[in-house]
Amino acid sequence: MINVTRSSMPPFEEYCEEIRGLWDSRWLTNMGEKHQKLEQALRDYLGCGSLALHTNGHLALENLLEAFELKGEIITTPFTFASTTHAITRCGCTPVFGDIDPESFTLDPRGIEEKITEKTAAILPVHVYGNLCDVDAIAAIGEKYHIPVIYDAAHAFGVFRRGVSAASFGDAAMFSFHATKVFHSIEGGLAVCRDEETLRRLNDLKNFGIHGPEEVPYVGGNAKMNEFCAAMGLCNLRHLEQEIEKRRHVVEHYRARLEGVPGLQLNPVQEGVRSNNAYFPVVFDGFRMTRDEVFARLAEQKINARKYFYPLTNSFACYAGKPGFDPADTPVAAHVADRVLTLPLYADLAGEDVDRICDIILK
Ligand SMILES: *Cc1c(COP(=O)(O)O)cnc(C)c1O
């Protein structure tokens, strides 16, 4: 069986060595040594000073929305994981869906301005598949209307544009370190912001607003990363570049087999961008089989591809009947969601498996 992804693991001994000290210190969570070390390593890697580790990416995003004290409408994309839309809704805001760019699958900046009203509180785009959004156009809109831009960068850890990390774009960004992501800490997430005041709020939100044993000036929840997860993050970060390089070989193999085949649209290569090779989406548009047929043929051979993202979040049952939740309003996103399939991709996916997958698709 070949799954769509497979978690990367550091050498077993390396992880054991990393956690050994916890048996002496007995400090298992609450911003311990591993947590502090990982935050410092991430500041260095991402080139961003203000960041807060979280239990997972979703809570990092909810805490960011809360730290910015957003009320009203947030312009976003329906071509994303449930988390993005749910975070907006759970924070008491209303998602307003813009359509996506058909090449990069990210929120199309050309549709943003017409959605802006006096209720608009923020723009929340997603770097889908690690493809960077049109960050310059979106920054210009944010500045023109004085609305913050917060990126869901869950897919974009390890992506750099001309040496600048994906964490650097917008007023804030969230990364997911879930087991299925390119870089992971089993479960985990990161909120990146630009100033110390927002960072203080994030740290309050993730630890009950507690400042000291007898001092609780802020209403917060709990979203702290524990030491075992931070240790996994420290180990995986050491191997990340090698991991991305191995993924690049798999991606190049897929491209060599599938590029130029009529009816197949592949992920774009973005100019000046170092990709993290997180996903290999293929859009079956005018191919001799539909996406669902390809999915079924692969499944017969125990190959699990994923309809990612399908369905769109604006067609989820939990939002049925809510005004503004209609995939017909985002026709490009609806078109892609019906045709896209992400193929299996992980660092040690064998070349012969890539060939087998491509053979099934092409034959
Ligand atoms: C994985 C993911 C999230 C949520 O991250 P978790 O760490 O699983 O909470 C949010 N948005 C997108 C686009 C994701 O892929």
Structure description:
It is a single chain. By secondary structure, this protein is an alpha/beta fold. It contains 11 helices and 13 strands. The strands form 4 sheets. Strands 1-9-8-5 form a 4-stranded mixed beta sheet, sandwiched between helices. Strands 3-2-4 form a 3-stranded parallel beta sheet, with helices on one face. A 3-stranded antiparallel beta sheet has the order 7-6-11, with no helix packed on it. Helix 5 links the parallel strand 2 and strand 3. The chain starts with 11 loop residues before the first helix and ends with a helix. Bound molecules: pyridoxal-5'-phosphate. Pyridoxal-5'-phosphate binds next to helix 4 and helix 5.
Short description:
The protein is of the alpha/beta class and 363 residues long. 36% of the residues lie in helices and 13% in strands. Helix 1 (12-20) runs antiparallel to helix 8 and helix 8 (227-258) crosses helix 11.
